[in-house]
Design a protein that fits this description.
Radius of gyration: 31 Å
Number of strands: 4
Shape: elongated
Helix content: 55-70%
Strand content: 5-15%
Order of helices and strands: HHEHEHEHEHHHHH
Strand order of the largest sheet: 2-3-1-4
Number of helices: 10
Structural class: alpha+beta
């Protein structure tokens, strides 16, 4: 009987405040969708770092005859055979070095033509203008500075480049987008909480006579508050469900179909469905608990008779 009464009161409350309930559902859905999207963005950045950082190399570029006039580090002229052999030998002695590949000027020229064949400068570049280099694969890419410290300033070495720096700008951009999404989510969350509190206030005010009578006949505070809390929880749960649908649809159209980023950017290791599904329970739990707690706090003040 009590359960039937609580359910009937929930239905009455939702019908009386249908517009505000709808606004709560929409605001909760948007804020939780942004929250879930931010979590997935962070997971995507982490996945890309794990994938790419394992593949990037440290490049040790060697001086050629043209660098003597343009680079102070090559003032002593082009790298000699003895210097190259010494550099390769020293690299082989380092525990953090996994593999070492020597790229000749001809190989560098070939790779350059493959990558920039459509540019105007590609037609005037000659093999002797390219730099020899050692492509060093490290066991731990984070230990780049060990190699840089060991070979920076050595005769025959023009520069040392960590390819992680090329990718870092992309990761920084994605992290910035993640922070922006969290900021918008926080704003939407505040709006949702304000709507929930106002909805509870209106509902409590419209039923103040009934709640007063229930108080006089000995009903407990929890029993009186339960319909209002359940209303907020129901609206929040609906908002969480809508947010889950938005995340699933977003993953489907952005990566698999529609925009189909997975086909257009095959070099990017995108997060799978398992990552999306792992976020959905958290979204639903927050969607259920957040409005319930907000309603509980609001009712402590607005249900006093």
């Amino acid at each position: 009987m009590r359960a039937q009464f609580v359910l009937s009161e929930i239905g009455v409350g939702l019908r009386r405040n249908l517009t505000m309930t709808f606004a709560v559902i929409v605001s909760v859905a948007l804020s939780l969708a942004l929250f879930g999207g931010a979590l997935l963005m962070r997971e995507q950045v982490s996945t890309m770092k794990d994938y790419w950082y394992d593949k990037v190399n440290v490049s040790i570029f060697l001086c050629n005859k043209n660098d003597a006039a343009t680079s102070p580090k090559c003032a002593k002229g082009a790298v000699t055979t003895e210097q190259k052999e010494q550099i390769e030998a020293d690299l082989g002695k380092m525990d953090i070095v996994e593999t070492v590949h020597h790229e000749s000027t001809d190989e560098a020229y070939k790779h350059y033509k493959e990558q920039y064949s459509d540019t105007a400068i590609a037609s005037v570049i000659t093999p002797d203008q390219m730099q020899e280099s050692f492509r060093v694969k490290l066991d731990d890419p984070e230990k780049y500075k060990v190699v840089a410290t060991a070979f920076a300033g050595r005769d025959g070495v023009e520069s040392i480049q960590d390819q992680r720096g090329i990718l870092q700008n992309l990761f920084d951009l994605m992290n910035g987008m993640n922070v922006a999404a969290l900021g918008v989510m926080a704003l939407m969350l505040i709006i949702a909480l304000m709507l929930i509190v106002n909805t509870v206030r209106v509902s409590a005010f419209s039923r103040r006579r009934e709640t007063g009578i229930m108080r006089l006949v000995g009903a407990s505070s929890f029993y009186i508050q339960m319909p209002f809390i359940m209303e907020a929880a129901f609206a929040g749960l609906l908002g969480g469900a809508v947010a889950c649908i938005m995340l699933l649809v977003g993953r489907y159209f952005l990566i698999d179909h529609g925009i189909a980023l997975a086909e257009k950017m095959q070099l990017v290791n995108f997060i799978g469905w398992d990552a999306v599904l792992s976020v959905l329970p958290l979204v639903l739990v927050i969607g259920l608990l957040m409005p319930s707690l907000a309603a509980f706090v609001a009712l402590r003040k607005y249900l006093k008779v």
